């Protein structure tokens, strides 16, 4: 899923194991040249590498469990030419996340986060986790896989996560930008992006 925001081309993708789809990722980058690629469910471990020419990679792998199958994890690939710095994310109750902050000369910093809300975790911490991420910067963009359904952003039904996120945006200066069609083939789901900006309204 791609977006254009602040003149940046931002792509968000649940890779469901990026190592097995690295050729698809490279082909997409060669064709579209996004400024940032936000990945969820990378399924990477400490011995794995994720390197793309002209991009800097930041990762937060899920800690290894006593099982041979790797799960979860988030990452951001950002063009190395863009002025930026890594923004640490605190451990959270519901979310896995990786953040970077863009630092354009003479302009406000913009924090961009790749997020994965784990489907089996309780929804009680969603508001706290989102507030933690948005508190990093006055201007924040969160893209990712929220495992959240709500008719407000084009799904055919509401689930608990969707209701919780809808309540969050109703009580904060936050907007959702969603595609008009499902982005997961075979399932009636839709991707969402959360934008928070205390100084302007994002369309």
Structure description:
The chain has three helices and eleven strands; from the N terminus they run ββαββββββαβαββ. The protein is of the alpha+beta class. The strands form two sheets. A six-stranded mixed β-sheet has the order 6-7-8-9-11-10, covered by helices on one side. The longest helix is centred in the first third of the chain and has 11 residues, at 22-32.
Mean pLDDT: 83
Radius of gyration: 16 Å
Question: Level of helix content?
Answer: 10-25%
Per DSSP, the total helix count is: 3
User: What characteristic shape results from the CA principal axes?
Assistant: globular
Instruction: Tell me the strand order in the biggest sheet.
Output: 6-7-8-9-11-10
Biggest sheet layout: 6 strands, mixed
Distance between the termini: 17 Å
Keywords:
203 residues, alpha+beta, 6-stranded mixed beta sheet, 5-stranded mixed beta sheet, 3 helices, disordered C terminus
Short description:
The protein is an alpha+beta fold. The chain is 15% helix and 32% strand.
Task: Describe the SSE topology.
Elements: E1 2-5, E2 8-14, H1 22-32, E3 36-40, E4 55-60, E5 74-79, E6 84-87, E7 95-102, E8 110-117, H2 126-134, E9 139-145, H3 160-170, E10 174-177, E11 192-197
Parallel strand pairs: 2-3, 8-9
Antiparallel strand pairs: 1-2, 3-5, 4-5, 6-7, 7-8, 9-11, 10-11
């Amino acid at each position: 899923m791609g977006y254009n925001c602040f003149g940046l081309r931002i792509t968000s993708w649940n890779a469901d194991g990026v190592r097995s789809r690295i050729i698809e990722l490279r082909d997409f980058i060669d064709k579209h040249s996004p400024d940032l690629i936000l990945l969820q469910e990378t399924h990477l471990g400490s011995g794995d590498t994720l390197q793309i020419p002209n991009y800097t990679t930041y990762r937060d792998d899920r800690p290894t469990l006593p099982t041979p199958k790797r799960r979860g994890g988030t990452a951001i690939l950002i063009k190395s030419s863009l002025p930026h710095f890594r923004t640490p994310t605190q451990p959270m109750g519901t979310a896995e996340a990786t953040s970077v902050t863009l630092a354009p000369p003479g302009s406000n910093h913009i924090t961009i986060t790749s997020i994965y809300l784990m489907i089996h975790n309780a929804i009680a911490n969603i508001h706290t986790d989102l507030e933690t991420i948005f508190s990093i910067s006055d201007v924040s963009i969160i893209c990712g896989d929220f495992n959240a359904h709500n008719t407000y952003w084009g799904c055919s039904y509401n689930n608990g996560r969707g209701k919780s996120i809808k309540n969050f945006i109703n009580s904060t200066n936050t907007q959702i930008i969603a595609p008009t069609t499902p982005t997961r083939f075979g399932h009636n789901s839709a991707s969402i992006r959360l934008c928070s900006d205390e100084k302007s309204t994002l369309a």
